[in-house]
Design a protein that fits this description.
With 231 residues, the chain is an alpha+beta fold. It has helices at 34-44, 46-51, 67-79, 88-91, 95-100, 113-120, 136-149, 214-230, and strands at 8-14, 17-22, 54-56, 132-134, 161-164, 167-168, 177-179, 184-187, 190-194, 197-202. The chain has 8 helices and 10 strands. The strands form 4 sheets. A 3-stranded antiparallel sheet has the order 5-9-10. Strands 6-8-7 form a 3-stranded antiparallel sheet, with no helix packed on it.
Length: 231
């Protein structure tokens, strides 16, 4: 039988603060496993690159929460099961989330639900009333780039798996349609996978057939992959 004698696990420090996971703590958090995700992200440098795909039109001298910090806060929250943005009214004061978001001053709260909501309202286009938006092509290219970086050598064959599924809706969301196959009101997102890698995730309304837009996405992905192969 395997004997586990290790009593603590060290993670990369947050500023001058040491981060250690132990099993004999007093006041504990059930979200400590997120430090494994943080360690993975630091190796992949994913969230900083995702933040670069956003356009921040705010006055930089007056902001308290950077794009990268808010993205980290929201994405780690989703990964931990906090889907509702209202959850961040409490999570913004959680030291674990402050570390995950890269905050060195743990006593200062993170962004609240209203600030995070304004970031999520961007449509990818110019809008005089929305100071934060995102670069659609940049995010699309990042997913494929992460897939390409996972291979030291170009694979002999690449198989793209195109799939769609239902995203149930329970309110009066914009673009809400009833889908006969799934027998519910839902969105119908499109996904493109290669093995375990997600190369595309496109939210769509449910008033289209399952293949709607798939040819355009496949062409875009194949073009980027071939461009990397020629480089």
């Amino acid at each position: 039988m395997t004997e586990c004698n290790q009593s603590s696990f060290g993670f990369k420090a947050c500023g001058s603060r040491e981060i250690v996971a132990r099993f004999d703590g007093g006041t504990i958090s059930s979200d400590g496993g997120a430090f494994l995700l943080r360690h993975t992200d630091q190796r992949l440098n994913l969230l900083p690159r995702l933040a670069e795909c956003f356009l921040d039109g705010r006055n930089q001298d007056q902001i308290k929460h950077s794009i990268q910090e808010m993205l980290s806060q929201r994405i780690y929250g989703l990964a931990l099961g906090y889907e509702d943005i209202n959850d961040h009214e409490q999570l913004r004061n959680d030291p674990v989330f402050s570390i995950l978001a890269g905050r060195k001053q743990l006593e200062e709260p993170l962004a609240g639900k209203s600030t995070l909501n304004r970031m999520e309202l961007g449509t990818g286009g110019k809008d005089r009333y929305k100071k934060i938006t995102f670069w659609k092509a940049g995010i699309d290219e990042l997913l494929v780039k992460m897939f390409l970086e996972s291979h030291e050598n170009a694979p002999a064959e690449i198989i793209l798996d195109v799939d769609t599924t239902d995203l149930p809706l329970h309110g009066k969301q914009e673009g809400r349609f009833f889908h006969g196959y799934y027998d519910k009101y839902c969105y119908l997102p499109l996904y493109v996978f290669c093995g375990e890698h997600v190369l595309c995730a496109r939210l769509r309304e449910a008033n289209h057939d399952a293949s709607f837009g798939s040819l355009q996405e496949i062409r875009r992905i194949v073009t980027q992959i071939r461009r990397r192969g020629r480089g």
